[in-house]
Design goal:
Helix 1 packs parallel to helix 7. The strands form 6 sheets. A 7-stranded mixed beta sheet has the order 1-12-7-2-3-4-13. The chain is globular and about 75 Å long. It folds into 2 domains: about 325 residues, LCP protein (Aminopeptidase), CATH 3.40.630; about 90 residues, Alpha-Beta Plaits. It is built from 13 helices and 20 strands.
Length: about 425
């Protein structure tokens, strides 16, 4: 995103234009996404998925063991509203435990739907090293878990990041504690200092040797670093050599969908971004909590906090601005999925539907206390009802089901939320 803005601000001569334009690679994903995709609820808005590709080839091999598949180290979605008066950059923790839909692989085979870390989607699609399949599987995963329609994508690899920083003669960072991380190949003392190439990359990738060791802490450092990178790059707009090196590094490591694969469309995107005031650009992280709260044996992953995550995605889909302060305030009252006791009743007349939905809820961490048939046999639509005192738990459950709101029921049995499954609810859309 930073590079796109500066591309528009810096200007290029004809030969530089062709040089940079020829660097950009494209990958067509349209035929790999299927027909069951979210609808854009706000015509004129755009959602652009940005992936930091964690490849381990060539000079990047030092950052981990040899991998037979492509990896995603960073995942974000840039939302541009139709009026272009503000923008949001939403970071997705790579350890987010989500359902990954069935995806097409590079060898022509397909994977089965399953729950795993969200960055696994890039690896599944990219199992044979093809960016199109990697990006398509990630788009399908983001869309199915958020309801947001992804319009474009960009992937940037390690080498591009290092080159961008080096072209700007480094970025100042100010760690509050010394960082010694063998996995990230990083040794930094506490205090302000300028980091370049390898150290800069190690700084944004380090995790276990600083702070609480979580991916959430790393996301915060990445967002701070990118803000500093943008400011440093803007200060170099009058330095042609620095800007050429910066833009050459990013374009050589950039792969996009065909619609934005070129200097001209990126110029257009840059023009849209330039008019957004800095105080209306929000860097957000999907609300989440440690999955250990729902699954005591899993201390490595996080799950998204509901209904806050659903509210964020719905707001963006409807072009409603969300500030960091608003999001932070909403995250204070956590209701764990495991604390939601739910009774699932079948109102479809289709045998086994309640059991299938209940199994999906169990896998998502909910406590299913029973299944059965709805009184009267069938219903027109799915409902979520709750007795006194369980409004927060009911809101969490309803937020995981498309288009539903929970309704209070004074006659409901105490101790559990009741989900009556109607004919319109697809099992694959649950949780």
């Amino acid at each position: 995103m930073t590079a796109v803005v500066l591309l528009g601000a810096g200007g290029t001569g004809a030969w530089i234009y062709y040089d940079l334009n020829n660097n950009i690679k494209s990958a067509d994903v349209d035929d790999k996404l299927g027909g069951d995709r979210p609808v854009n609820l706000s015509p004129g808005s755009k959602n652009i998925m940005i992936v930091g590709s964690d490849t381990r080839e060539g000079a990047n091999a030092k950052y981990g063991k040899d991998l037979t598949t492509m990896q995603s180290d960073t995942l974000m979605v840039l939302h541009l509203p139709a009026d272009r008066k503000w923008a949001s950059v939403v970071s997705f923790p790579r350890d987010s435990w989500v359902e990954i839909p069935g995806c097409q692989k590079g060898d022509g085979s397909s994977s089965s739907p399953h729950h795993f870390k969200i960055n696994e989607a890039f690896a599944i699609g990219g199992s044979t090293g093809k960016v199109a399949e990697a990006a398509a599987c990630t788009i399908k995963t983001v869309e199915s878990n958020t309801g947001l329609r992804i319009d474009h994508f960009m992937t940037v690899d390690f080498s591009g990041f290092k080159g961008m920083v080096d072209a700007l003669d480094g970025i100042e960072v100010c760690p509050k504690q010394a960082i010694h991380d063998e996995k990230a190949h990083l040794d930094l003392e506490a205090g302000c200092q300028t980091v370049r190439g390898e150290k800069a990359l190690g700084y944004v990738r380090t995790r276990y040797s600083v702070g609480d060791g979580s991916d959430i802490g790393r996301i915060g450092r990445q967002q701070e670093f990118m803000d500093a990178l943008a400011k440093k790059a803007k200060s170099k707009l009058g330095n042609p050599d620095a800007m050429y090196g910066f833009l050459k590094s990013i374009t050589k490591s950039l792969t996009t969908d065909p619609d934005i694969a070129g200097i001209q469309p990126l110029y257009g995107l840059a023009d849209e971004l330039k008019g957004i005031p800095s105080d209306r650009l929000a860097f957000l992280t999907v609300p989440n909590y440690g999955r250990v709260a729902d699954q005591p044996t899993d201390k490595a992953n996080v799950v998204w906090q509901y209904p806050q995550a659903a509210d964020l995605f719905t707001s963006l889909a409807k072009d409603k601005e969300v500030t960091k302060a608003q999001l932070d305030a909403s995250k204070k009252n956590v209701v764990y999925a495991s604390s939601v006791r739910v009774r699932v009743l079948n109102g479809t007349g289709v045998s086994g539907r309640a059991a299938a939905v209940a199994e999906k809820l169990r896998k998502a961490g909910y406590t299913v206390v029973g299944t059965g048939n709805a009184p009267g046999g069938t219903v027109a639509r799915t409902t979520v009802t709750y007795p006194a005192g369980l409004d927060a738990q009911a809101a969490v459950l309803a937020s995981r089901l498309p288009g539903l709101r929970a309704t209070a029921d004074g006659s409901a049995a105490a101790g559990a939320v009741t989900l009556v499954v109607g004919p319109e609810l697809k099992v694959e859309n649950v949780a």
